[in-house]
Amino acid sequence: SPGLSLYFEDGHDDLDDFGFDEYGSECDGIRITAFLDAGQDNLTPLGRLEKYAFSENVFNRQIVARGLLDVLREFSDNENDFISVMETVARMSEDGEPTVRAELMEQVPNIAMFLHENRPNFPEAFSRYLVPIVVRYLTDPNNQVRKTSQAALLVLLEQGLMSKADMEGKVCPVLLELTEPSSDDDYKIEAVAIMCKLVTMLTKDTVEHLLLLRFCELCSDVRLFQVRKVCAANFGEFCSILGQEATEKLLMPKFFDLCSDSLWGIRKACAECFMVVSNCTSPEVRRTKLSPLFINLISDQSRWVRQAAFQSLGRFISTFANPSITGLNFYLTGPPSHRPEGNSSTQPKEDGTSLGQPKHSAPLSHQQMDDCTVFNSFNFWRSPLPDITQDLQLLQEEERVEVIEKQDETMRDTEAQVKVLSAALKAAQLESQREDADESLSESNDSTVKNLYYCAKIPIFDVFPNSHSLLSQNVIPQQLLDQYLSMTDPARAQTVDTEIAKHCAFSLPGVALTLGRQNWHCLKDTYETLATDVQWKVRRTLAFSIHELAVILGDQLTAADLVPIFNCFLKDLDEVRIGVLKHLYDFLKLLHADKRREYLYQLQEFMVTDNSRNWRFRYELAEQLILIIELYSHNDVYDYLRQIALNLCSDKVSEVRWISYKLVVEILQKLYACEAHDLGLNFINELIMRFCHCSKWVGRQAFAFICQAIVEEDCMPMDQFAQHLLPSLLSLSSDPVPNVRVLVAKALRQSVLEKRSAYSDELEEALSELRMDKDRDVQFFSTLDPNRNVMDTSALI
């Protein structure tokens, strides 16, 4: 109310004192540092700060804590005042009210950033005043205060504001103390969680010397399953930081124990981080120890563990990738991990109840192998591939090393794009030389080698109807591949995950790259099975990745096995077709010219959609056509793409028209670049008739934009532009619609005027009229400096 003083003292003895208790939450709209203003108490600003920071009224103390950043801004110029404020902050941190302590801790990251940017002695002040508060609050009896301090600590580390000395000397000792066996359970669980989050922000030396042994102890905590679960969920982070040696010597035994834990949630967490752990081990450990361990998880008695294991299977397989076998080298810098969404089942709430040990299943027999592809998830999952020499250490026999090195030379680039028969025979030869292969496989391989003469004359799949069992591979353990191929089994959808086929499709590019194109025969049937899956989401996943798989397989296998699937996707639902369309250029450029030309007749089909309101589909088509132009001759562009472009220019949605105008410009540039002047002139005349003489103002406006783009992109010689297009453009300078004149003025002043033209007199005359136009926007663009950056006028189209 007007009669009420803005500030109200908590003692209630002087209405002119400066308190806030009459305002409650409404005080949020008041300047927080108003209590520093001069009043009738004759106190200095620092005195008033002291007064309200330790007021008996809790709300006053909360307001001071919330306004500490603004207070520091007020006093940061004077060193003595700054020290006084920081000492006040340190004393306030001992406030007995939890809400005050929590409010203060929320401001610490902001205060630290301010000090970092404005105080030359930031490290000293931060370490002396703020770090002790953060560390002390990690053991605060109030849960909210502890949670706030944990969040603040993470922010400080993410921003790089905390020094290594403070981390090692102040933070880590507290975490180690809280994770002692005798520590309180709640504190211990929280400390383990914060320790696991911090590990990714610490150096390897710090983790190895201070946290590693304690982490190993916590992994074996028999009393608190919550501690083991946190350790299992963050196991991969520790492995990534510590590297191969520490992982194999110290962490591996703990990982084995966690993978066989009595609680299904812990085993599930292990399955989810399996790929990261695998990346931190040698090829031999990966093959001989981790693979059997993963097979146990994938056959676990808990459905949730099996589900997580199958979702991680493709990523785990990708860690076996070896450039000497794939024939391809990838340098990956993308995001670390990505997994498909959509787990259709609801996971039950986990408690401490034991669900028994995971059961072990016998190896699956060799069954027909099928597989399919989505976007190249390998690029997201796989950390930089190990050196070839390191991977070759996996091969225990010198004989096998020589074979793979020879194969490496013959499988690269064009020579690597071999026929399925050649790949099958090479795989069989490799298998015949494996001394550790089981007896049945060895006999099969020997039989295959003996019949090489007949295989050379008769297709291998005619000789051996079940030849997939004979054409096994040695890139990954066969059991892993068998399990991966079984993901298309309808029974898996009932017993594991209703979307297991989608996960299989999602991870297929990584699996295909790992196996190499010479082992594509192992995945071909599975790919075809997924491509005809009844779930459109599975087919959509494949459609989005088919261009990546084409890169892996090469042009011959692509033409033989992927093109038929690609053609089916073109006739599928829009949800599937969009996957093909988004990467149409990427796929077509991998085909031979003759095969590529066949798709010219099908591009028109993309104009027809299941839902006419799906304008983004047509927008994507225009974007792809801009790229596709370079793949075809100027005659094909004129005969097939020109009409599609003109139809898109008449779309009902402005965004589609906008991108289509750029497509028209690219087509014209292609024609003139190929010296097809007659076709170019025909196209220009068509543009004039369709747009410049259009009865609708949007068409005439589009013509102005197209003309400007033609000049800016140097699509044609300027004398040709002046002769064939400029007169029509100048005629629009007197158009009755202001929006048309705006773009005409913009095109003439910013683009055409900068080029020498035979129509310079007419151009100046048109600009003079536009400068005197009654519309202010027209005047603005007709007088604007061409080099000045102004708003985009595309919104007017």
TrEMBL record:
It comes from the Eukaryota. It holds the Pfam family HEAT. InterPro entries: 2AA_helical, ARM-like, ARM-type_fold, HEAT, HEAT_type_2, PP2A_Regulatory_Subunit_A, WRNPLPNID. One of its GO terms (cellular component) is cytoplasm. Residues 374-446 form the Putative WW-binding domain. GO terms for molecular function: protein phosphatase regulator activity. Residues 89-318 form the Phosphatase 2A Regulatory Subunit A helical domain. Keywords: Coiled coil, Repeat. This is Serine/threonine-protein phosphatase 4 regulatory subunit 1-like. It comes from Sinocyclocheilus rhinocerous. The lineage of its organism: Eukaryota, Metazoa, Chordata, Craniata, Vertebrata.
